[in-house]
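ok so I'm stuck.
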Amino acid sequence: MLQQAFNGLVGGAFYALLALGLAVIFGMLGVVNFAHGAFYMLGAFGSYVLLDSYGVNFWLALIAVPLALGAVGVALERLFIRRLAPLDPLYNFLFTFGLALILQDLVKREYGVQSQPYPRPSALGGSVDLGLFTYPAYQVFVLAVSVVVCGGVWLVLARTRVGMIVRAATERPELTRALGVDVARWVTPVFGFGVALAAFAGVLAAPMRAVNPLMGSDLIITVFAVVVIGGLGSVFGSVAAGFAVGLVSALGNYYVPSLSQTLVFILMAAVLLWRPAGLFGREEAL
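replied:
not stuck anymore, here's the structure
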């Protein structure tokens, strides 16, 4: 059971990173970024292409790919998202949905639908003795890095002036504007940061999961469920729900495999019936 729980925490690490980016983007822009899974996939493929074509190792890709895709996110926000923002939110949802399909098909056209191999870093190729069981070193690294990144982002949001402005604009954008803060000034870097987090998760996933064009679409629906469970726009709620959903999925897959594909959505329905705003959301957000 402990080993399954640890598997769940490792899976939850990806949910937490992706949900964190989604929560910040939705809170500040009110945009349901359906292309988030596509950027996760591009992060994995970016690391694969850098290694296969240019010999760039995992450690450099872990820095370069999120920065590059974060810059792409900044350009997308300035050229497209911002123009659609004054319209009905459905327009930006349809735009990001279409963008996800375009990016996915471009990668399929270039690399096909077969999974591409990506080796684990040699320094993390062994196992770690956790006392009651041994566990692959790379998975331990993924969990540790996810906790550090999510904790670091939370500290920046909670302890710095810039972070407090971003958090306020994320969770209470109208009230923040009313207090004289130019929320629009923070929209572009926040969108780029959310995309960079998705790409970062993709690079981490490359040595662990199959690198293929469908890896983002397979994950994004569950990540949306995570954000809803945690509370739309709640940064802390999204991270906490990410790890919780990872645990529930892993334990459910072990004990009730017949419900493994639907357990997360059953949990989401139960949370919404009990608390429509999500576990850490505010009723005003509805």
